[in-house]
Specification:
alpha+beta, 5-stranded antiparallel beta sheet, about 55% helix
Amino acid sequence: MNEEKKNPDLRKKAEELLKKTPEEIKNLDPKVLKTMMHELEVHRIELELQNAELLKTQKALYLSRDQYGFLFNRAPVGYLLLDINGIIVQANETFRHMIGQETTDLKGKAFADFLPESDSNIFRGRYRSFFRNPKHKLIELKIRSDNTERYVQVEGIRSESDNPQIKLFDNNTLFVTVTEITELKQSQVRSEHLNRTLESINGIHQLLLQENDPDALIQKASRRLTENTGYMNASILLIDGNLKLSHIGHSGFPEDRIPFENHFHDQSFPECIRKALESDQLVVTDKADQSCPDCIVSNSLQRSTAYTKKLIHAGHTYGIIMVSISEEYANDQAEMELFSNLAEDISLALHKIEMDQLQKQHESEKSSLLDRVNRKNEELNRLLAGAKMILEIDDFDVTSRRIFDSLCEMTGAISGYV
């Protein structure tokens, strides 16, 4: 409240008093002078109190300004003011950190300049409509940060104040939040990759149940592994007890190059295979194109990791399965478990095929043995019949002829002597 309006006569009296000379002041009524001095003293004290309140309010405003400034600059999302052309009017520290330009003044620079070309074109194409009506609209973009790219989600609100008497910013600006969603996008990509892998593995499981030829099994399984799972290449190698290569299934390699054939010929195994043969655990080779240069797989791997696992069941080693996978998925625990479980399933299928083949072999040998026994029984029956005839017939010529006929029937002979 204005103090002059509160005490309309006080200031007038004080001015009149100041115009008077010391002699005139002495002639004033002491009561009047005392009253005026009291009122002036009260007014002085009121002014001091008001000044203290103003200083307190000013301090609170400064604190509030600093707090809001801190919140603006240190918020967990990027804040921008953009004009109608997408030019940055103001940017907070978080956004500057996002793009790796913490000390750079971004005022006057185009927001689209910090995006990859493809995303920059998307943003420029949608910005005018976004600026006019940003409500309930989102734009997902990639933003450049040093030598990497981050996924961000852009939202905006017009910067007009609800109170028309308060003008915070130019009405031709848009207040924009830039939220990093890199981990969310990576999680979505991993989830989609794992779903594709599971779908492919389910197809391989059907194959394992239906196929009874080991060579056909590993050829088809290798192709399935590179069709939908994101594996760059795949090899399934079957070996015998002397570590000699017996069958090989592979996919994702040049047609004129069969991986590992020479390695198994002279047993000069790459380190990944040697480790896998010595252990039942999954062998993970990071940066395979650099760490395993003696392996043919490394010639076709860029920014990838190799998984290698021994195929073993019931103590019997059937071979090796090996795939190369992008680095972004390689250290995912679920990915490793899926691959290890697949290796165990293939080992079980190979064991089943081996057992089925042994059973068929035993059944064949059993059938052959029964045939031989039956033939021997028939021969014995013929001999017994011949001996019986000898005992029953006295005529030597007739007897000898019958013996000869029986022997010819048993042996298949067409001539002889008795």
